[in-house]
Write a structure and sequence with these properties.
Length: about 160
């Protein structure tokens, strides 16, 4: 398969290998090729120091969240969260946040569970950083009261 500018998959791999002075092994090449063929931005995980299993995981996590990760830059940022071993529900919140254009760095902490991430993300979508409220142990209903919102789930997404 050739891109519009006549760059083939092989040319792309050669470029990455030249930049890193390292050669991908056959399993890494297979993962990169699968991602490339599936329309994933392989730049998100085309690093020879990433083993093939982590490449597989990054590719699959991006593919599973394609509805939120259509932007190639978001795929690259998201790959770092997979690499840092956030769990599946946390990854959902991070992918949704990337797609909504919120600053996911505010809540990209493995110590936060997905529900806390959700509350922080929804607050950011409203233009309010509620991270301190979450960290200070406020319950969800207390955060709703402070923001004057009855229920984050009822806010139009």
């Amino acid at each position: 398969m050739k891109l519009r500018n006549n760059i083939t998959f092989g040319n792309i791999i050669d470029m990455y290998e030249e930049q890193s002075s390292y050669t991908f092994d056959s399993r890494q090449i297979d993962e990169l090729k699968t991602g490339y063929d599936n329309g994933i931005n392989i730049e998100a995980y085309a690093d020879p120091i990433i083993n093939y299993f982590m490449m597989f995981r990054i590719r699959r996590e991006i593919e599973d969240r394609r509805q939120w990760l259509s932007n190639p830059k978001d795929q690259c940022r998201f790959a770092q969260y997979v690499y840092n071993e956030f769990d599946g529900l946390q990854l959902d919140e991070l992918a949704i946040g990337l797609s909504k254009g919120v600053n996911v760095d505010v809540y990209a902490h493995r110590s936060l569970n997905h529900e806390e991430m959700y509350v922080i993300r929804r607050g950011l979508e409203m233009g309010v950083n509620v991270l301190n409220l979450v960290h200070n142990g406020y319950e969800l209903h207390e955060i709703h009261e402070k923001l004057g919102v009855d229920n984050f789930y009822e806010i139009e997404e």
